[in-house]
Write a structure and sequence with these properties.
alpha/beta, five-stranded parallel sheet, 5 strands
Length: about 160
């Protein structure tokens, strides 16, 4: 059984993320969306661009609602508390990930993560997901919510309705 992990901040979750999960389900029997929870990084994002802090449990609820009728998708949170910023705690993060998700045998990411995954997850296959099929990044949304509102995952839109002009 191919069990894939698609890891990220998803800050916020958008239709590009959904496209990547759906693409991965063509190859994997199951996909775990792994949301990185890092309060320090979230505070830095707020200070940099003024984007409200999103708790990982909120992001998790958006994906769970979106995929509620697809048993092949699981949503989980990996707590990065206590880890130094990337790349200073890479091995600690990898060990934490492997302990929490021992059944994962496919790592899902865009091509730029191939070398990282080959180095730290040699036991896993790597599934490269084309990044620019849906031309949006969470940074774009954080920097201009009004312009990119329609790119949000549909289940996240109600959360942001009172934050747009």
């Amino acid at each position: 059984m191919k069990i894939g992990a698609f890891t990220g901040k998803f800050y916020p979750a958008h239709i590009g993320h959904v496209w990547a999960v759906d693409y991965s389900l063509k190859y994997c029997d199951k996909v775990i969306i792994v949301i990185s929870s890092n309060p320090i990084r979230n505070q830095e994002i707020k200070e940099k661009c003024g984007f409200d802090i999103l708790d990982a449990s909120i992001i998790k609820s958006w994906f769970e609602e979106y995929y509620k009728n697809d048993s092949r998708v699981e949503v989980a949170i990996i707590d990065e508390s206590g880890l130094k910023p990337y790349p200073n705690s890479t091995e600690d993060w990898v060990n934490r990930f492997k302990k929490q998700f021992p059944s994962v045998n496919v790592k899902i990411a865009d091509e730029s993560y191939r070398e990282f995954n080959q180095k730290y997850f040699p036991e896993c296959e790597f599934l490269a997901v084309p990044r620019d099929v849906v031309s949006i990044h969470s940074t774009d949304i954080r920097n201009n919510l009004n312009k990119y509102f329609d790119y949000l995952i549909p289940t996240a839109k109600p959360y942001f309705l009172n934050k747009i002009n």
